[in-house]
Amino acid sequence: MSLSVDDDPRIIEFDVRTDEMLVNMGPQHPSTHGVLRLVLRTDGEIVSEIEPHIGYLHRCAEKIGENLTPRQWIPYTDRMDYLAAMNMNLGWALAVEKLMRLEVTEKARHLRVLIAELGRIASHLVGMGAYGLDLGTFSPFLYAFREREKILDLFEEACGARLTYSYITVGGLTADLPAGWLRRCEAFLDQFAPVIAEYHALLTTNAIFVKRTAGIGVLSRELAIDYGCSGPVLRGSGVDQDLRRDGESIYTSMYDGYAFEVAVQKGGRYPRDHTYPPVPADAVLGDCWHRFFVRMIEVVQSMDLVRQAIDRYASCPGTIGEPAKLTEKLPVGDAYLETECPKGQMGFYLIGDGSAIPWRARARSSSFSNLSVLAELCRGCLIADVPAIVGSLDIVMGEIDR
Amino acid sequence: MSERGTAAPRGPGFLDLLDEALPGVVSGRNLEALDPWVECPPERLTELCRWLKTNRHVRFDSLECITAVDWFEPDPKKAAKVSWQPHLEVVYHLWSTDARVSLVVKVKLPRWAGDTPGRLPELPSVAGIWRTADWHEREVFDLSGVMFTGHPDLRRILCPEDWEGHPLRRDYVMPLEYHGIRGK
Lengths: 402, 184
What we know:
A: 402 residues; Cytochrome-c3 Hydrogenase, chain B; 3-stranded antiparallel sheet; B: 184 residues; Beta Polymerase, domain 2; 5-stranded mixed sheet
């Protein structure tokens, strides 16, 4: 009796045995969010190893920072996370203010909250829209950009720029809001609130989207902390940390009197989870779906903060004050400050030596650390899952390469 | 609200515990600074870091940032006025996710090993303690020229593999040409 191929599955297995293959993804791949090159070692459809190559967008920002005064470096911080330039400006401005022991006026503080939270919404909208794009659905991207456009219009009205604002600066802001701006901002929020349901219908509860993200790329709490992950990547793994609440007093005092709940799952529940679609049964804490969902919650949370900031700013007496002089001398000493940017905890470190130019300017990028965990997340996943995992980290190469 | 700003978990009491556990490891300190820091000799860095991560008082389980600072003034006129000797300083910013406090560890290194320009100073790697250090040490090696001994894969990360020199050194000279691309 002869054994045919159909009888013994092992023979078929043996016949189609695959070889290990190196696959190069990027640096111009559309799903790599800029210029990121990934080298995948694959066995059939399975990724056994992944090696990110970065640096394609390296512009020596730190070296430039050693040759400019802190206020002159503000435009360079714009170009780090260019999707949340307002938050980058704020991070650097606060770090310099920490070293100079400078305080901004009450009105400037509320305006900063207002602007930073709008920036967070804009950044998360890109994160969400581009994530849909990574997974092969084009429409959410257009829905997200439709609303982001309105935020950019508001920013343009306030400071004249649509991408690289340099609006928040050391000692305050470069200009006050134009007349009627608050009303237009409120109109945007009123119009934006019901749109969130569309996003949930398009992505959060979409069966294909859930299949592609739930249970994929699970990042444990310990690993997230060990790799220095932060922001939605850290909170998506269930770590209850948000620098707006837990950070240094110079930063948390900005949010004094503001009510918000950190977007993290505690005891199996997200804050106010009755207002969101339910967590799918396949989702595991720390997977791509949870990282995405934390961002969606933060959009609503930021809307709420913007509303609070509008009220406080409108009723606050006084002015936003004057920014520091362009060539203000820095005291001798060093200061490090991390702020909660949309992508994670962005840290700025500067050393003053008594002159107007810092001896050292350092930017600690959140996406840099968030991306470093990729090799760990992709070990053993399918090739098709790689864009899903990279997209869920919501990285910006401008910030990683600096 | 956060406990930051209060000195309790990283104040003198905490340092006494540190001194008790690892005598002589802290060679300098400033707890009055904006960010309180301790300094340790390079050869005892891993010992200190391992204790900071695993001790039962305040566990600094997260390494946020590694920075190298080049204390060197290339201009001889200005160099005559500065109060410090040329050296490299590597700064570690640590964070405790439970206690929500930070601590800074500083290490002083010679600019060049054995005073021979071009020979990079060595420092033990902490990549085995915090995995954040893996990429951060690669960046410091790439831009500031510190050789981290025991690092699993120390290569350039931001600059191309065949780049020469370490751009964040103060005496770094911009190359005039790179693969046919003109510099200045």
